[in-house]
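Chain X:
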Amino acid sequence: TFSPGPDSGRSAAPEQTARPALSPTRSPATRRLREGRKNCKDGPALILGAIDISKRATRLKVAEVGTGDSVRLLERSSLVSAELSNCDRLSALLMAEIEAARDAGADHVEVVATRSLRGTRLLRLLDRVCRASGAGGILLPDPEQRLASTFRAATVPSAGELEGTVAVARVGESTTGIAVGAPGERPGWVGSRPVGCATLTEKARFSDPPRPNQIEAAVTAAVRKLETLSPPAADRVLLSTPLAAALERICGPHIDPASARRGLGSILGQTGDDIAAWFGTESGQGRLLPATIVCCLGLAEVLGTAVEPREADPVAGRFWLTEAGRTSAGSGRET
């Protein structure tokens, strides 16, 4: 039985001597932001910040989170790969982003990292930087925890319009996962497979732009991996990805295998830089768009249902998962 815990993950290093949190001077604009907090429609809100370290980039997000909705206040990415040779750059970046989150009014700032960094010297060094900056240790969420928080992020704001059983798929860099349950509640089933947009781009050896035969090989691999999942039947399938807006423009609001192939055809011959300029994203994200569409195609084909792109707020999702308490998420688990 899987019970996604309320915590976002375990600390990357043993507890060290506690340091007092830094309390930088707030600007008048920041104080007004913290005192007003009128952006969220649903009840009192907190301003929360999160820094997510992946293998390819570090992302800062600050959101005002209420009991049933959230408002994104700040979001930006820095394309610095998580390698030991970049330790000094990442250390300076983390200190700057923690300070930026506080200047944006964040009551709490957490730093999370991909589990592929677990046990590395780089993670230990960066963990010390975060603790010294007053943000606490770096958290390493399990894939199941990320899926559970993504499910909450995608369904809590839309709980009133969603009926029946809902599946939320998350296309990440290294994995694609599915969580199934009642809207606004904790998911009752979760499962994932190692077929993310970055791993698919690398293993299918996508050129830039990818060639048709490379795309077909990626589709075959994605379907073969995803069809080993056996999630419960769902009335609707939502898709959480940072590229949700781009997917909807290219493939439409309901993506089935046919519309996914049309979308792939529409960007055939476009480089990652071309796609990034077209949609206003960083080059790294543009490079991953073809593989993301391939994952959508695989999900729609395996599940037999069109997927609906949604841009879920991970900051709010982790907060709502924590607020849900430590009750059991259900009896289903796939690894």
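Chain Y:
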Amino acid sequence: GRKLLPVEDAILYCYLPAKRADWGSNFLMNTDMVPNGPRDDIEDIELNHEIAKIAGRQFFYWIKSLIESDENELDSIFQLIPDFDECKKKKQYKEFIEEFQEEFEILIKEEEFIPVIDAEGNKHFERINNIIDDRTGLTKNNVMSDADFIQLMDMSEHSLPVQELRESECFMGLLYHYCPGEMDVDFDDIQKKCAEDDFQTWLKDVDNNTKFIKHLLDSDKLRDFAKKSIFMEYEGDLYEADDLYYDFDSNCSGIAFLKTFVPHLCDSTRTSFENEENWNSFRNDHFKEFDAEKIINDCIIDNEDAISLLKNIDNSVSFFRFVADNDVDLSDNKES
């Protein structure tokens, strides 16, 4: 769509320009207000205050019509909405601006004007009070589909704005200001939800899991999730970071036949992030360090299924070679 360009130093018009009547907006507004004698300002009279209220309502309907026309960039439309707190610093017009703002904000909450896409891909409009404020960026960055996000966050009665608006700082600022708190979704909410069964099922998909961890890493939030079961183990189950060894293959190649008994990070996650500086720091701080003795004592010796594999002569030779190479003391383990 076409980009609407803001007007710098915009003033009010009372048919002719009232050159001193600057409300701090970035659009021109022509009104029927009564000007002063020199016609360079507006009179502080009741009629003009009523017109300020009418102007606030008409401003909303202008914004709404621009959105519905689908002819202009949405971000440029929402840039037209003033920062009312900043505008009211022009103290001589504060009461006029408050009246304009009050009427505008009544309609903001009552009218359906935010474009959304439903589950069938159809576009319609919703009230701002029904719009989900995804502050995590999961939907904006296509980490999670809209349908999955709404289902997993238990928000089936509410809607996400169209993708173009999620990328608009002006709109997201407006949403932050006017959206009810219960519509906010932040990383704390994700932490609470990610242990639930449906979320865990979603995370067990390798592609979903990789994108999710990548997003947390890029958002500098991964450390907040270290104690959450979001890290995929070799066989596909989810673990907390400190319950997994980072790299089995590099350290335990001689006992590959015991791989399934040693919880360790899946190859796809490890290879996806091994060149990421932030990941390497996280890895060093949170995953289990290689410790041959702990691996044998915690994962092998007391596991009957694992020990049964040592009845195979080749496996047994490889196992005791691993024990010797890593100076593991088995003297306290009678099964040895």
